[in-house]
Amino acid sequence: xxxxxxxxxxxxxxxxxxxxxxxxxxxxxxxxxxxxxxxxxxxxxxxxxxxxxxxxxxxxxxxxxxxxxxxxxxxxxxxxxxxxxxxxxxxxxxxxxxxxxxxxxxxxxxxxxxxxxxxxxxxxxxxxxxxxxxxxxxxxxxxxxxxxxxxxxxxxxxxxxxxxxxxxxxxxxxxxxxxxxxxxxxxxxxxxxxxxxxxxxxxxxxxxxxxxxxxxxxxxxxxxxxxxxxxxxxxxxxxxxxxxxxxxxxxxxxxxxxxxxxxxxxxxxxxxxxxxxxxxxxxxxxxxxxxxxxxxxxxxxxxxxxxxxxxxxxxxxxxxxxxxxxxxxxxxxxxxxxxxxxxxxxxxxxxxxxxxxxxxxxxxxxxxxxxxxxxxxxxxxxxxxxxxxxxxxxxxxxxxxxxxxxxxxxxxxxxxxxxxxxxxxxxxxxxxxxxxxxxxxxxxxxxxxxxxxxxxxxxxxxxxxxxxxxxxxxxxxxxxxxxxxxxxxxxxxxxxxxxxxxxxxxxxxxxxxxxxxxxxxxxxxxxxxxxxxxxxxxxxxxxxxxxxxxxxxxxxxxxxxxxxxxxxxxxxxxxxxxxxxxxxxxxxxxxxxxxxxxxxxxxxxxxxxxxxxxxxxxxxxxxxxxxxxxxxxxxxxxxxxxxxxxxxxxxxxxxxxxxxxxxxxxxxxxxxxxxxxxxxxxxxxxxxxxxxxxxxxxxxxxxxxxxxxxxxxxxxxxxxxxxxxxxxxxxxxxxxxxxxxxxxxxxxxxxxxxxxxxxxxxxxxxxxxxxxxxxxxxxxxxxxxxxxxxx
Length: 791
Known about the structure:
3 domains
């Protein structure tokens, strides 16, 4: 492993990084899967990239690395880390390796076309892009028709397919600049270069969502190394990828879409009936044979997983275009009828299909083909304004999913938005209950899958929920030369009234006032930035309103600006920008946000941007949700995971994620406050690197005790501290690593020697037994014989 030390992007590295890389290598050597929990701010990403790139370059197979992360900011950070790593390798090795790494994101983020990139909706950008790049549009242009093509996309066809972009690591900004300079499309450059890359960095959905994975990731080789970083919520991503919702509004739009399709079919019959006839002939052979278009032209992919797709011919009743549209219209009308109920209905896919067949005589088999049959029809009709057919696509997706899966899914029809609502607004939820279904093809197809994050505790929950086996499961401690973060559990106010966000007491004036006092006191002593997390938007709005009435916000305003996260992404981005400005200019600010929101996932508050993080209440999910209740019941019956265990695990992983936002490196410091009496019992479910740092004297605190402890911590952390003080303790040099390896080797030799000695002793005992057996005597008979001789 010494060879890996020089892959780091600095002269020193952390002891936990070495342990992390050792376990990664064990996983890759064994060809299995692992779950690794690495503390926040300890260089998890660069350690992972260093080891795997070194592994790639050392072995002749050059296994491709597929690095998946959750958000755009995390993808960009990973690409920047990879770029810095490859520069360091070139500097150390004295040569530039033949290596290509790039990131992939949506068309909306990578589009260069002057008019298309101005669109705000991702769906509209996709539709307009298709209208400029589809194969049939190019065919029309070649026939002399007056149609617009995308110059950036057309220029790609003039280049060598395997060399659209030079070697190197391309960040998203880098590939955009290159595309602008050379007038070529960054999105399709990245898509087409994926087979020729050593490292690909993109979102989870490109592997876990069947609709996207079928188009983007199906050609990846089985020996690829798959990494899911920041994977604490991976089960939710799996569930979302196979779930869909149908509303009355979407059904109305789907009906209009079906009518438009009928009109287009009639027009094509009059102008080019041969195309429809050719499509029919191909569908007789089978749907896969009919799919001859380029992958990037596809309107949508099958939402079912690859193993569940049918390879046979399309049923006769949906082969002809007009018959298929009539079939869809009948199905949409049935769904509209089901929406007219006024009570909640919960049923399995089999029950739904039985009622469907009884009412409309629609069989299960043609439903399974709906998604791909619609794709085939849209392509045959050469439609460009595909955003008009998005609701119809949702219905086709629902039809395919409900007809494909029997177990692990549930249909829930809710006629009202809430229990108190009087105006009906029905929603049909087709919800996946089993996260293992979506990720199973990944574990089956690829040899090594690495699930890693800073907050995965308890580790054994993930293999159980996702139904896979690991070769390594490990959590790492954070080695520090000084105490750089202070975790505390505050359970009561200065008036000794217990504080909690539990439903029974959350709106009591004494509890709200104590939370306000906690905010006020910490705003006085915290330098620069302070981040406050609430369990939900509803509770945050409620408590802010009550604080305003109590005059608490006016008091806090004297010390810091107050900014609030909202569900609107643009408003939140503006609030974040203002918050950072206030932290930099000395005014200081407080950002009020929500656990499970955008800020808690992927936004770092390093150094002055986050000196205190305050978790007000335990972020439990809304336990009255029917979807959650169904999932809890499924987990109990299938995986023997009790409801309370899962709810507690889910709440604590989000609380841990909030706490981890404030500490982004060993030279950083911060205060972590868990403000709820229930955290006392749940402390053991925090990641071990946080839990081990919680001293007994910092639990069950009142507000004044917590403030006193925080003042003492801030006073100590303000003392001079040199980088050299960390060397040999929290950071290692090459010499320290070699000493550690020598020590490990000595321990292994000692273990082997002890093992050999034990083996000799055991072997000697066996010889004694054999000798006793040769004389036909047991131990007691032998002793009696010796006594007789002595006598």
